[in-house]
Structures are given as structure tokens and as C-alpha cells.
Design brief:
Elements lengths: L3 E2 L6 E2 L7 E11 L2 H7 L1 H22 L2 E6 L3 E6 L2 H19 L10 E13 L2 E3 L1 H12 L5 E4 H7 L6 E8 L8 E7 L2 H36 L2 H9 L8 H4 L12 H7 L18 E4 L2 E5 L11 E5 L2 E4 L5 H9 L20 H15 L3 E2 L3 H9 L52 E8 L17 E8 L16 E4 L7 E3 L2 E2 L2
Parallel strand pairs: 6-8, 16-19
Antiparallel strand pairs: 1-2, 3-5, 3-6, 4-5, 6-7, 8-10, 9-10, 11-14, 12-13, 14-20, 15-20, 16-17, 17-18
Helix pairs in contact: 1-2, 2-3
């Protein structure tokens, strides 16, 4: 490419740097009623907002692979490569704020409005500009406190990739934006999703009933419109050879005698079988563990410190993660809130912690056994299989032991492989690392400072989030370590999240 020269002098000119642009998902958050909160308690509100930014906003954006562009005193702007991660991050922030507000007076609640938009933006070191940002800001402005509003562009990218509901609000005309914006409200929790689905089903049933009524009306009109002579011919016509025995029965069978009752009974529809296949699905296969002491944690991550000795009592752990077939038995019994897709022998996915609790509650009631989620300490004890190495088989990754992105498995798959596809650990447990992320009972704590040393469930802390273990087929090998721990919002489903059950003696 030749030099750029001045038109008059002919001297070479330095090239003009184009403004860096990129397509990004922009998240804009703002605190509703910030001025009122500052009037109520200026110093207290300022301190709480800064704490929320430090403990929730910044780490949540980082965990979802986003970049915090800037904070604005009463809000923030973040940028994501993935629209899915942008919306998930927004949901987690909103649902964590519910837990933070629960213990304080309603007048002092801090509630964010959040808008998410997909757009081509101008990037500067400390800011972003362009209509992509402006639209996200306008969406935030019309959202109700605690809500996440997304644009049509975001909706088209995520509608088949997240298990949540969406309420279409139609096209909205907003300030300083020329064209109307298609707006959707995100319904992140399972109950809202079910309500939305039930509304759709009600509409479909109404339309179906209307169609049946129209067809019935058409048939009635046709019969009434026939000449009387034609109707008489139809009435005198001999019965069809294919008629049922009840129709062909001779005149005596129409008497009051009880003898011919059998044909009528045969012609009547039989009652449908019970909806729940629970009796046909055995309880999860369990492995009994005698318990014992082990060193829990590692120095590989601050959340895994300090390493400490923990003693676990005897218990049983599910040999495999809960499968689609096992989950759908609960769904068929109307005890679990959705029907899972996929092959019967793969782990169930897209399960929130609350969903997992629904399953173990149903399983315990059905079997009359104390099924539950394992504690975090029990899970790590079981995953280590008696070892203290980086992985249960040693300190180096080896193929054939776990399903993860760089463990030799297919990282482009939509589901993990069937349970039991890899080698079991020394305790005889499969997929205790890789496959699916696995919920445990414990609330989230940022590290092990003050954690119990008897293997019990650690409550308290941030119970709007719960601990998740194992890593998944979409994660790299560092997540497969038995010591690895993470957390996710209690009520939010995620495509790699599953679980396994434990059983008290």
C-alpha cells in the first residue's frame, strides 16, 4: 500500500488511525431512586454502593468473561463478547440484590435497573461510545427496579440458549433514538418461566377449543342444510361392515337386561394410566463411603484456602450424576418443574440449585430414604478417592479419566457424554470431575476461613448463591481438580449445571 501524501505539497502524511470499533453486548445498570437514598443516609448509601460494586458487580462481570468499562456513582457500564454471558451476568446481579435487600427496611433497598443491547461501539481505554451504548442506557431507563430489559438483537441471540422466560413488550419509542426498539423483559426464575409457559399453553388450548367449535358448527350447519329426503336416506342406510360390535348389536341387546353390558364396556375408552413413571425408574445407584479424614482445599486459588484437615462421617454418594431419565421421572410425577431433553443416559443439565432440591425432596419422599445434596466437604472427599494429588489419578492430566475441553473430549457438543464413559476413581465413583458441574448443599463463602471441619454443610454466608463443583465438559482441565470450587446464583439455570445425590446412613 502506497504512502498517503499531502495534496498540495506532496509530502508524506502520517496515516490516520481509525477509531477502534467492535460488536459487543453492552450492559448498563443504574440504581433506582439513588437521590432519595442519598437523602435518607448519604454516607451509609455511599458505603453500601461501593461495597456492592466491589463484592458483587466487579466479580460477577469478571466471572462471566466481561469487562467493567466504568462505574458512574450510581451505576455501571460493562461490555461482553457474548450476549448470553451479558444476560446471565445481569440476572445474577439482580437476584443477588434480592438477597442483600432481604434483611433491611424496604425504604433502604438498593435496586438496579439493567438494560442490555447488542451494538457496534467505539472503544476507548476508559469508555465506550455509540448507539449500542445509548440503546442499552435507554432500556435501563424504562426498566422497573430489579428488572433486566433486553433489545430484540440480544433476544435473537439468546432465545434458544437460556432456560428462562421472556415477556415481549413490543416496540418502544425512546428518547433520542430514531427508530423504535423491540423490547423484552427477562423472567429469570423457574416460577416465572413456568407462568409464561402456562400462559402460552392457555392461549394454545383456547385456539384449539375455538377450532373444534368451528368444525362442530360446520358439521351441524351441513346436517341442517341437507334436504329432509337426504336425511331420511342416511337414516335408512344399512350399517357399515366396519361398524363396532356395539353398533351392530341386535335389538334384544338394547333391552334392560344386564347381559349385553360387555360390548358397551368394550366400546368405552379406558382410563389413562398414571402420569408418573416413578415405579419404573429405580433409585440412583449409590456407593457407600466409610468416611475419614483428609486435607481439604489447595493453594491453587484463594477461594480454596486455607488447606485444613476435615473429618467426614460415613455416607453414600451417587455413583453417577443424576441422568435425564431419572430427572424426567420426577418431572412426570409433577414434582420437578421442567422436562429435560436429551438421551436418557446422559446427565441432566440446565438445573438450578433450587431445581436440584426439588428432585432430592421428591426422591426422599418416594423412596422413604434420606436422600439429599452432598455437603461441599463430602463432595471433595468423594472426588479425591483417597488421594491428595492435583487430580485423583495424579498431578498430570491423562486422557480417559474426565470429560472436559482439553481432556480429549468433544468440547463442541451440546451435552456431556453418557454417564460412566470415563474411568471411575478409587472409590468407584464416575464423573467426579468434568462431565457436568455439580451442585452441593453449602451456601457460598469466598474462602474456607471459619469453615466447619466435620464435613457438615456450611450455611450462612451468601445463600443467594450456592457452591458448585466438578467443572464441566465445556471447561478446561483446571476446573476438573477435586479442590476446584465455584458458585452460581441459587435460582438461575445454566447449560452445564447438574448434580448428584447423597444419602445419609
Amino acid at each position: 500500500m502506497g504512502e498517503i501524501r499531502d495534496f498540495k505539497s506532496g509530502r508524506p502524511q502520517p496515516p490516520r488511525d481509525a477509531m477502534p470499533r467492535r460488536l459487543a453486548a453492552i450492559v448498563v445498570g443504574d440504581i433506582a431512586g439513588y437521590s432519595r437514598l442519598m437523602q435518607l443516609d448519604e454516607e451509609g448509601t455511599h458505603t453500601r454502593v461501593k461495597r456492592i460494586e466491589r463484592d458483587l458487580i466487579e466479580p460477577t462481570i469478571a466471572e462471566h468473561h466481561g469487562k467493567l468499562v466504568k462505574t458512574t456513582g450510581d451505576g455501571f457500564i460493562a461490555m461482553f463478547d457474548s450476549p448470553v454471558e451479558a444476560v446471565r451476568c445481569s440476572i445474577v446481579i439482580q437476584q443477588n440484590m434480592i438477597g442483600r435487600n432481604a434483611a433491611i427496611a424496604r425504604d433502604h433497598w438498593i435496586e438496579y435497573r439493567i438494560g442490555v443491547n447488542l451494538g457496534d461501539v467505539i472503544i476507548e481505554p476508559d469508555d465506550v461510545y455509540g448507539d449500542g451504548v445509548n440503546v442499552a442506557s435507554r432500556l435501563e431507563g424504562i426498566a422497573a427496579p430489579g428488572d433486566v430489559f433486553i433489545s430484540g438483537g440480544i433476544y435473537e441471540q439468546i432465545k434458544h440458549k437460556m432456560v428462562c422466560g421472556y415477556e415481549s413488550l413490543g416496540d418502544k419509542k425512546v428518547k433520542n433514538i430514531t427508530d423504535p426498539i423491540r423490547v423484552y423483559r427477562v423472567l429469570p426464575d423457574a416460577a416465572a418461566y413456568q407462568r409464561t409457559r402456562r400462559r402460552r399453553e392457555s392461549v394454545l388450548l383456547t385456539l384449539l377449543g375455538l377450532a373444534v367449535a368451528i368444525i362442530a358448527g360446520g358439521v351441524l350447519w351441513y346436517l341442517l342444510a341437507q334436504p329432509r329426503s337426504k336425511l331420511a336416506e342416511l337414516a335408512q342406510a344399512p350399517p357399515s361392515p366396519a361398524a363396532s360390535p356395539a353398533v351392530q348389536a341386535p335389538a334384544p341387546s338394547q333391552s334392560s337386561s344386564p347381559v349385553p353390558a360387555a360390548p358397551t364396556q368394550q366400546a368405552s375408552p379406558q382410563p389413562a394410566p398414571a402420569a408418573s413413571p416413578a415405579p419404573d425408574v429405580p433409585d440412583p445407584e449409590m456407593v457407600s463411603l466409610k468416611g475419614g479424614s483428609f486435607s481439604m482445599g489447595s493453594n491453587d486459588d484463594p477461594s480454596e484456602r486455607p488447606i485444613r484437615k476435615v473429618t467426614v462421617r460415613p455416607f453414600a454418594m451417587g455413583k453417577y450424576p443424576v441422568t435425564v431419565r431419572e430427572w424426567n421421572a420426577c418431572a412426570a410425577a409433577k414434582a420437578c418443574s421442567f422436562t429435560a431433553s436429551g438421551k436418557d443416559d446422559v446427565p441432566v443439565t440446565n438445573v438450578s440449585w433450587s431445581d436440584a432440591k426439588q428432585y432430592v425432596t421428591w426422591l426422599a419422599e418416594r423412596s422413604k430414604k434420606p436422600y439429599r445434596l452432598p455437603s461441599e466437604a463430602e463432595w471433595e472427599y468423594a472426588a479425591r478417592g483417597g488421594s491428595q494429588s492435583k487430580y485423583w489419578w495424579g498431578d498430570q492430566m491423562q486422557p480417559g479419566h474426565a470429560g472436559c475441553k482439553d481432556c480429549g473430549s468433544d468440547s463442541t457438543a451440546e451435552q456431556p457424554v453418557k454417564v460412566g464413559s470415563f474411568k471411575p476413581n478409587p472409590f468407584g465413583l464416575y464423573d467426579m470431575g468434568g462431565g457436568v458441574d455439580q451442585w452441593v448443599e453449602d451456601c457460598w463463602h469466598r474462602n474456607y476461613q471459619g469453615a466447619p471441619d466435620d464435613g457438615a454443610v456450611w450455611t450462612g454466608g451468601d445463600c443467594a448463591s450456592h457452591v458448585i463443583r466438578s467443572g464441566s465438559w465445556k471447561n478446561d482441565a483446571r476446573y476438573v481438580r477435586p479442590a476446584n470450587r465455584d458458585n452460581y446464583d441459587t435460582n438461575v439455570r445454566y447449560p452445564t449445571h447438574g448434580f448428584r445425590v447423597a444419602l445419609s446412613p
